[in-house]
Amino acid sequence: MGGRKRIIVVANRLPIQRGRREGETRWVTSPGGLVSALTPILQKADGHWVGWHGTSGRARIPTEHDGINLTSVELSPDEVEGFYHGFSNRTIWPLYHDAVRPPEFHRSWWWVYVEANRRFAEAVAEVASPTDLIWVQDYHLHLVPAFLREILPRAKIGFFLHIPFPPTELFAQLPWRRQLLEGTLGADLVGFQTRYGGQNFSRTARRYADAKGTTSVLEWDSRKVEVEPFPISIDSHRFAELANRPDIQAKAKKIREQFGGERKMILGVDRLDYTKGIDIRLRAFQTVLERSKSAADRFVFVQVAVPSRERVPEYEALRTRIEQLVGHINGTWGEPDRIPVHYLYRSLGQEQLAAYYLAADIMCVTPFRDGMNLVAKEYVAMRNDRSGALVLSEFAGAAAELRGAILVNPHDIDGLARALEYAVELSDTELRRRMAAMRRIIRKHDVYVWANNFIRHLST
């Protein structure tokens, strides 16, 4: 670590959430790969995590949890609306995902976003020392690096974007494009999921923020800013262990009996979001059913849709559209003892989700655009016997690594339908070859390698 004392992670959310333990409501560690990856690193480095606790107003947050020091950033109801629900999720999110839905540009949201980012930076500055490494996470906090640079001019600051960075022509729509770029350029190291994201950022920074340099090294404000790809991953060892557990295997067998029986089971697991392509995926499965009278006897589709932003009108409309499509497919091709599509609108715990992965013959991951998509990697990690097929969008970051997947254009209904049919036709030998290649990748480059690579790069 080059003699540096601590690592400070700055994220929209703290690594804890309200949960039940031993019959009491208390703060527990949040699930997810980022928290799992960074916890052991922060524990060893006397680390600190700065973030929002997830609700408006004040909350009694512990100052330490699981060996990590915590600092909570408070947000008012208006700030939650403008910073989080507004600018972060209705301006940046759609813009960065190829403007699948038109982004909304509101000045009131922008100024709340600016002030919230300033508050995050000030919270970091209160606990940081000049020798600390500061790692800022994701699109909610684009402006934090520059604000920190003003307060701590010699600090080592890294920024990592978990979602795609759009092409210059799309990003140019943002009225505050220069400010967002300059905020990010306050970092010493800017990381992206893929090299394409880094290329887009560097090209855009040179055009709209007067940065100089190359794709990998920019010069701005008399400093060098490195731009590098750091594809995030999962704890592949943990998923492989889950696949070997007899109780998980028993759950998977029960799922097969309930949903599939002898039919080939296709699985989709997504947050209910317009970027995930769930409706197009279902229409592709409908096309498979239309092409063959026996398809309903040979396939079953199980779609898990995790609730998301339920109060946002377009998400409500998406849910309605998907549920109507499921009803139409089942009403047309279903029988009392043979339902073509099983739709689960709920969250699944990790063990239950692992059982679904183990039960599925085909994993269908077809977002219109995704920074990485860890569901694809989780499915691969669960296939210890090297069985199963992965149908994967070529516009997911994971497609650059998982070459053994069957890559598809998620906008192409007929092409996606052919990919599902092709996945079933592949021989066991070919399936094992493809799966083995993907498993080597995720075992070699797991989430701990990702975190250590970024921190090592930042510290040099």
Can you describe what's shown?
The protein is of the alpha/beta class and 460 residues long. The protein has two domains: 7-232 and 448-459, Glycogen Phosphorylase B (Rossmann fold), CATH 3.40.50; 236-444, Glycogen Phosphorylase B (Rossmann fold, 3-Layer(aba) Sandwich), CATH 3.40.50.2000. It contains 17 helices and 18 strands. The protein has helices at residues 33-44, 77-96, 107-127, 144-151, 168-171, 177-184, 195-208, 236-244, 246-260, 278-291, 295-298, 313-333, 350-359, 374-382, 413-425, 428-444, 447-459; strands at residues 7-13, 16-21, 24-29, 48-52, 64-65, 68-73, 133-137, 156-160, 189-192, 212-213, 217-220, 223-229, 264-271, 299-306, 341-345, 362-365, 389-393, 406-408. It has a ten-stranded mixed sheet with strand order 5-6-4-1-7-8-9-12-11-10, with helices on both faces. Strands 15-14-13-16-17-18 form a six-stranded parallel sheet, sandwiched between helices. A two-stranded antiparallel ribbon has the order 2-3. Strand 16 (362-365), helix 14 (374-382) and strand 17 (389-393) form a beta-alpha-beta unit.
Rg, please? 23 Å
Distance between the termini: 8 Å
From the helix content, strand content and strand pairing, which structural class follows? alpha/beta
- Spatial order of strands in the largest sheet: 5-6-4-1-7-8-9-12-11-10
Give the full name of the CATH homologous superfamily of the largest domain: Glycogen Phosphorylase B
CATH class of the largest domain: Alpha Beta
